[in-house]
Amino acid sequence: MNSIADRFRLRLLPALLLAVGVGTLGSGLMSYTTVAEPAPTVLAIAPVDPLPTTDSSLVLPAANATPDATPTFPPDRVTTRVVIPLLGIDLPVIAQPPDVGVFPPCGVAEYYQQLGQPGQARATYLYAHAARGMFLPLLTRSKINNGQSMLGMTVEVYTSDNMLFLYKVIEVRRHQTSIEPAFQDHVGFLWLQTCEGPTLDTPKVFVISELVSSGPTTPSAAHPQAHPWVCMR
Q: Tell me, what's the pLDDT at 74?
């Protein structure tokens, strides 16, 4: 029984909070001008540097180096930026600030801390609102032929240790109600999530991509300045 309780507490409950927060807020942003709801309250959040201090002694293996039997994953690597050139998406990525409750802030994407980071054999799970300047293009494209036009698109993911990971979109899943499949990902796919509608139990869109290549990038490209803001209370 303890294991079941732990599983609910550590996995299902955070997932439920995430679904409630992103679904309600994302769709609310899209519809508040046409639905009888008050306009969202805009409250500034202090600028967030999404990057931990990178260990200057960290030496990454060369691209052509022979991998070790048990390669070491940089323990402080986090996702810092996500770009989809063909959709006009370019967002800093942060961990959800602790002072905004279950509702993610706007102006950024966020990584799901209970899952992995690029280069791990675990899912990298990024989510943002279905609103202008964020992940709205994912929702819009998903409604046309089930998102087939997104297949093959390149997704750029930057990390705090000045690395760039290139992914290719391989699947679009609509009307999703659980993030449990991401926990079963032991390959290391990139999962992008946004919402489909305004209710608490609104389904989600998943855009899933596979890793194509990775390599070093410049600090300026990997270190965007994030200015998240509270778009609803």
A: 87
